[in-house]
Structures are given as structure tokens and as C-alpha cells.
Design a protein that fits this description.
The chain has 113 residues and is mainly α. It has six helices and no strands.
């Protein structure tokens, strides 16, 4: 998973710079701390599904960002599903996926406005 985090972090940094945003500006738009953005860009953290949706909204100027974040969202969902299945927590998984789908749907609605 670390390789994915590092690659994802590099791409987020590139997209942020292409959008002309500082870490602080991206953090404000995504409603997270600039320290968290830094950790993502360095490959030390991988954002939650909800934060991925917020990052997508903040970087919406870039089609490339939309594709990258959509792929990352799918990978995050798949990883969560694998973990939940391995632990036998099917009921919790269904609830979390429903919440994640709602968060993504809300982010898409905001973007269309």
C-alpha cells in the first residue's frame, strides 16, 4: 500500500501545483489541515473516501484530477471492502459504503452548482 500512497501523493502535489494552489489553499478548500495535505503528498497518509471527494471538489479544474481521484476512490473502496470481508464485518461494510456513496453524490452535486 505504501507504493500507492507515494504515487498518489506525488500526483496530488502535481495537480495542486497545476491548479495554482498552495497546500494551505487546497487544505482550506478540502476542509482539512495543511499538515494533512503535506502528509498525503509525502505518501505518509492516504485520504478517506470522504476526503477524496473533497479533494476532487477542490481540484475540479483539472480533468486529470477527476480521473486520478476517481481511481483513488475506487481503490480505497476496494481496500476497505477487502479489510471488512477479512474481518467478517459485512454489516458495517454495507453502512460505510452507503455513507461513502452519499458523500460522493453530495460532492458531485456541489460541483454541478
Amino acid at each position: 500500500m505504501k507504493d500507492i500512497k507515494v504515487l498518489f501523493g506525488r500526483r496530488i502535489k502535481e495537480l495542486r501545483k497545476n491548479c495554482g494552489l498552495s497546500q494551505e489553499e487546497l487544505a482550506e478548500k478540502a476542509e482539512v489541515s495543511s499538515k494533512y495535505i503535506s502528509r498525503i503528498e509525502m505518501g505518509q497518509s492516504f485520504p478517506s473516501i470522504e476526503t477524496l471527494a473533497k479533494l476532487e471538489g477542490a481540484l475540479k479544474r483539472s480533468t486529470e484530477a477527476e480521473v486520478l481521484l476517481a481511481e483513488a476512490l475506487e481503490e480505497a473502496k476496494a481496500e476497505r471492502i477487502r479489510a471488512e470481508l477479512a474481518e467478517g464485518r459485512i454489516d458495517e461494510l454495507e453502512g460505510e459504503l452507503a455513507e461513502a456513496a452519499k458523500a460522493v453524490e453530495e460532492a458531485v452535486k456541489k460541483e454541478k452548482k
